[in-house]
Amino acid sequence: MSSHREAPEISKDPVADGTDVYAFRNPNRPDNVVLIANFLPLQQPNGGPNFYEFGDDVLYKIKVSNRNDHEAAITYEFKFTTEVKGESFLYNTGPIESVDSPNWNRPQFYTVTQVKDGRRRVIADRLPTPPVNVGTRSTGDYAALAQQATHVRRGRRFFAGQRADAFHVDLGSIFDLGALRPFNENHLLPLANMDGINSVQSYNVHSIALEVPISELTRDGSTPTRVNARKSVIGVWATASRRRGRTWNPSRGAYDGTGPWVQVSRLANPLFNEVIVPMGEKDRWNAVAPAQDAPFRKYVQKPELAGLLPVLYPDVFPNLAAYDKPRADLDAILMTGIPSGVVPGFQNYTGPNPADLLRLNVAIPPLQPGDEGYSNFGVVGGDLSGFPNGRRIDDEVVAIELRAVAGVTIPLVDPTYEPDGAAGALTDGTENTNADLLDDFPFLGLPGGGYQTVPGTTTAEPTNPGGGQGSAAQR
After folding, report:
1. Residue 261 placed within a domain
2. Average pLDDT taken over every residue of the chain
3. In the chain, how many domains are there?
């Protein structure tokens, strides 16, 4: 997944586990940038009575670099406070018709602090989140509740709360020995070809969404219009931190944190820690800043997945198997940004030092579905306003990155290379079958409700590579 349970330690701490980061110009207000960071992966909507919520003991941050040094010039800190009302075991004791409903026994509020040029200032205080989508009786008009929790303060928009996960991927197949269901017949252990299955369908996440003017994010306070200007590019990432020490306070029935905040999770480019960083390095990667990414560069320049594809799909990727040069294309896409002259009319370069950042060129006009030239394959589809120029919510990042790893982007830096025919067709076969995206802020779809959710089916019966069911002894 983009970054759902991507490292051993953070998978044990879902409230601090970042799942996706998005950064794009708002096509409805093109002088503004939307920044979104999602946390708490794979939420079952029916997970009561203790439904999902942000952690009061976690400090969530969205960071922006604008000086090509990969350091945070601007940080937005989000700190949550939960209030417990009444003596009921229930999340709510009646319909929740507003965010200040007396029937909601566990409302949550947050404060947003901006840190810029070393100065801290609170830019929004005690903003209410919406409740989770409990179900038809409890949160019947969820769209209205979410709208009440969308706040405007001095030209900025804020939202923090539960949303439908918009990421889609076939986890069940990909992590079953690197299989892609549409190409099952070509796998080392073949099965019949079939459509991909979206493993994230019906799951929710908790989102922190922020919309601010472009001029608030650039180094000189301008709204750049020159694509080739270095000041037009910003780098974005999100982190979650916990106190260094934690002790149980029996009088409060809760943990008390002590000591400095320590980063336990971070995220920028989708799938970076998931499929690029090896297992033994994943937790260390989560703990360091992008400016410290030099030790991880070797995994980008020679990714394990690029070596596995020719093994898992024999005779399908002969050119990729023979290519032994460092992957300068992936290095540019993920670690430095793409310099001017590689893709006509585009650059998001932030300097030669490696850092995993979601790089957005704010001088490139935004496109949305229905616009001429729009493609949810982003830059590789000819749409310069999409991934890896930032990341829009509907960008097909799994297919884009599969094809890049398989070699379709190598000719950008090495014209002598000819990609294998299959490289440009790779996909996991899934579509976003979660809730429909919204047309405006906060863009992510409404979360699935607990009452409305129908759990899926499961079977433990193995399937043989030839397609038959396993024997009784195997079962």
Report:
1. yes
2. 93
3. 1
**What does the pLDDT average to over 422-441?**
93
Does a structural domain hold residue 219? yes
Q: Is the dihedral of CA 44, 47, 51, 56 positive or negative?
A: negative
For residue 248, what are the domain limits? 10-425
The backbone region for 300, taken as left when phi is positive above 0, alpha when psi lies in -120 to 50, beta otherwise, is alpha
Residues 314-325: tens digit of each pLDDT:
999 999 999 999
Residue 443 belongs to some domain of the structure? no
Give CA–CA dist 379/335, Å, rounded: 16
Q: Are 76 and 97 in contact (CB under 8 A)?
A: no
The dihedral through the CA atoms of 114, 120, 121, 122 has a sign that is: positive
Eight-state DSSP code of residue 11: G
User: Residue 1 pLDDT more than 60?
Assistant: no
* Cα angle, residue 170 at apex, residues 165 and 172 outer, rounded to 5°: 115
Taking the whole predicted model, whether its pTM rises above 0.85 is answered as yes
Which stretches of 268-369 are assigned E, i.e. beta strand? 358-361
Q: What is the pLDDT of residue 442?
A: 98
Domain annotation covers residue 86: yes
- Amino acid 328: pLDDT: 98
| 347-356 mean pLDDT | 97
End-to-end Cα, the chain, rounded Å? 29
State the amino acid at position 148 in one-letter form. Answer: Q
Q: What's the full length of the chain, in residues?
A: 475
Q: Residue 55 has what pLDDT?
A: 97
- Three-state DSSP at 470 gives coil
Return the structure tokens found at 210: 């922020």
Query: Which helix H or strand E contains 236, and what residues bound it?
Result: strand 233-249
Q: For residue 22, what pLDDT is reported? A: 98
Residue with the bigger pLDDT between 35 and 253: it is 35
> Which burial class, exposed, middle or buried, applies to 190 when counting CB atoms under 10 A from its CB (0-12, 13-18, 19+)?
middle
CA pair distance 425, 432, nearest whole angstrom: 18
